[in-house]
């Protein structure tokens, strides 16, 4: 694989990657494994209860060793083996390829070569303005795969599609609560799931909506009646 293709692959990975776990993990659920990643050169590290799994140099270096257990240090923890040393320090970190921010700064020394990157839970964006999302589920129902969805936030307006019509409207955020003006939408009729999920989203947005940012990088909108919409960030 050429380095160009490797860089592109890494870029796609960073755009979609959150600190995820082995096995199934739903939006908003805590990860069962710790993930870290970095760029220049691209690398990833997975820490599970049983092993440390490191892929470095855009996938050319692969090291898998038993997990020796975390050694607590000031403001973090270390993992030390013959081939890998991992230093996790609590402190906000940017991955260098997107505006996604992580909880920890991570330093990995693999066979004597040291790289730095980010790991742990994804932190909420500093503000909604300038962020873009797609829907994962609306009202607890996964969105239809054949109905593209978007939700974009500008300085004081939001716009997008919940699977059928384009919509837009003003909004304001205070204390993790979003209040939207009545949404203006096109008048196209869509068969099947597209119209159903759109109607559920419009109903959700008629009142104040609480904002929750789980550490997996998703956004959960919760209406006053308990109805929810789960979205994932587009980087």
TrEMBL record:
Q: What is this protein called?
A: Heat shock protein HslJ
Q: Which InterPro entries match?
A: DUF306_Meta_HslJ, HslJ-like_sf, Hsp_HslJ-like
UniProt cross-references to PANTHER family, sorted A to Z: DUF306 DOMAIN-CONTAINING PROTEIN (PTHR35535:SF2), HEAT SHOCK PROTEIN HSLJ (PTHR35535)
What is the superkingdom listed in this entry's lineage? Answer: Bacteria
- Recite the UniProt keywords alphabetically: Signal, Stress response
Q: Which residues form the signal peptide?
A: 1-21
Question: Which one Pfam family would you cite for this protein?
Answer: META
> Per the database record, which ranges form the DUF306 domain?
127-228
Q: Does the keyword Protease apply?
A: no
């Amino acid at each position: 694989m050429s380095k160009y293709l490797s860089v592109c692959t890494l870029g796609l990975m960073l755009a979609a990657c959150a600190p995820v776990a082995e096995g199934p993990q739903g939006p908003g659920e805590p990860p069962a494994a710790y993930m870290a990643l970095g760029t220049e050169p691209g690398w990833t590290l997975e820490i599970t209860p049983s092993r440390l799994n490191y892929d470095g140099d855009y996938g050319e270096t692969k090291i898998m060793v038993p997990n020796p257990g975390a050694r607590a240090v000031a403001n973090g923890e270390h993992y030390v083996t013959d081939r890998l040393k991992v230093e996790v320090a609590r402190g906000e970190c940017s991955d260098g390829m997107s505006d996604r921010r992580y909880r920890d700064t991570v330093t990995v020394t693999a066979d004597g070569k040291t790289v730095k990157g980010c790991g742990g839970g994804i932190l909420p964006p500093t503000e909604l303005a300038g962020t873009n999302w797609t829907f994962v589920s609306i009202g607890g129902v996964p969105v239809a795969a054949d109905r593209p969805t978007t939700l974009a936030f500008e300085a004081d307006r939001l716009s997008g599609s919940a699977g059928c019509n384009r919509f837009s409207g003003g909004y304001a955020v205070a204390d993790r609560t979003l209040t939207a003006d009545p949404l203006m939408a096109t008048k196209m009729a869509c068969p099947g799931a597209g119209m159903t999920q759109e109607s559920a989203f419009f109903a959700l947005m008629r009142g104040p909506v609480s904002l929750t940012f789980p550490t997996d990088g998703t956004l959960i909108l919760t209406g006053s009646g308990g109805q929810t919409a789960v979205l994932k960030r587009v980087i």
